[in-house]
Design brief:
The chain is an alpha+beta fold and 352 residues long. The chain has helices at 2-21, 26-62, 69-94, 115-136, 165-169, 256-283, 322-326, 331-351, and strands at residues 105-111, 139-147, 153-161, 174-180, 191-201, 215-220, 236-241, 246-250, 299-304, 309-312, 317-319. Helix content is 47%, strand content 21%.
Length: 352
């Protein structure tokens, strides 16, 4: 640990010297200043830890002084609490960062088994994430939506922009299950339905290069419910990435140009996610056993309305405040628990 801390401090000093030299290009200066800013709070914690440990040693010597003994005991109690906090802060800072954590996210929700009830549940999940986004000060823009006749979503795709969006939402990917009496149920029986959630880090053009020759572009007329044409021009766009077979369709806008821009944004994001998944699979064979692996075949959470209970199966978390979670107001209790569990697992792997 001490060797790692020395390396961090040394790198921090190197960065300060490089930036103060004043001979860096704009992009290089920006990159180094971001690294410097990231390391600064860690170095401050390292320095504070060193000072606290020195102070503790001095106070222990004062325990032999009858006049200073009581004051030393009191200050030692405070230090005995503060030192482990600093050590934990430093350990968390040493966990390898996911480069996608600071990115915006593309949220995709699709109705699963359960027909109309599954589509209504998909709409409830989207409302939950919109509520949470509002609480976090994020912006939500619907990119594509396919509704049914009773206000549910067969599919909804949205862009969520703000600070560290992906780091907060990345553990939401998976199968969400609901148990409740559907609005369409006349005999009061509880049904089980499901919807899938995928949260992808939004890719920028610098993350993924899409060559023109690898892209097939088809245009067609947008259609509304029941198949009637909603406009008379070929404004809808279908993009096919030939090497991977990934297809994105977009008809939300009346402008073909706008639909193509939105489709390219989603396509880049899906290709970036595919690339990340392949790298993750190569680096960690035991990935499926890790908390928050994001494997979308997993049933990750159950929303039980008759009992007002929410259960996240990955960390055995149960909350009896379902309405508050589904409104988005208390979703952070679930998300923060998942992040804490992931950090604990990462720390354990670092120490082994």
């Amino acid at each position: 640990m001490n060797e790692k801390l020395s390396t961090i401090k040394k790198r921090h000093e190197e960065l300060a010297a490089l930036m103060s030299a004043g001979n860096l290009a704009g992009d290089e200066f920006t990159k180094l200043s971001m690294e410097y800013a990231e390391l600064s709070p860690v170095v401050e914690a390292i320095d504070e830890l060193g000072n606290a440990e020195s102070e503790k040693q001095d106070l222990q010597e004062l325990l032999n002084d009858p006049e200073m003994k009581d004051m030393a005991k009191e200050e030692l109690l405070a230090l005995d609490k503060r030192i482990p906090e600093l050590e934990q802060q430093i350990k968390l800072a040493l966990i390898p960062k996911d480069e996608a954590d600071t990115k915006n996210a593309i949220l995709e929700i699709r109705a699963g088994t359960g027909g109309d009830e599954a589509a209504l549940f998909a709409a409830d999940l989207f409302t939950m994430y919109k509520g949470y986004a509002a609480k976090m000060g994020w912006r939500v823009e619907v990119l594509e939506a396919s509704e049914n006749d009773i206000g549910g979503y067969k599919e909804v795709v949205a862009q969520i922009t703000g600070q560290n969006v992906f780091s907060k939402l990345k553990f939401e990917s998976g199968v969400h299950r609901v148990q409740r009496v559907p609005k369409t149920e006349t005999q009061g029986r509880v049904h089980t339905s499901a919807a899938t959630v995928a949260v992808l880090p939004e890719a920028e053009e610098v993350d993924i290069e899409i060559r023109t020759e690898d892209l097939r572009v088809d245009t067609y007329r947008s259609q509304g419910a029941g198949g009637q044409h909603v406009n008379t021009t070929d404004s809808a766009v279908r993009l096919t990435h030939i090497p991977t077979g990934v297809v994105v369709e977009m008809q939300e806008e009346r402008s073909q140009h706008k639909n193509r821009d939105k489709a390219m944004k989603v396509l880049r994001t899906r290709l970036y996610d595919l690339q990340r998944q392949q790298l993750a699979d190569e680096r960690a064979e035991d990935r499926k056993s890790q908390v928050g692996s994001g494997d979308r075949s997993e049933r990750i959470r159950t929303y039980n309305y008759p009992q007002g209970r929410l259960t996240d199966h990955r960390i055995n978390l149960t909350l009896y405040k379902l309405e508050e979670v589904v409104s988005g107001e208390a979703l952070d209790e679930v998300i923060d628990s998942l992040i804490a569990e992931d950090q604990a697992a990462s720390l354990a792997s670092l120490e082994n």
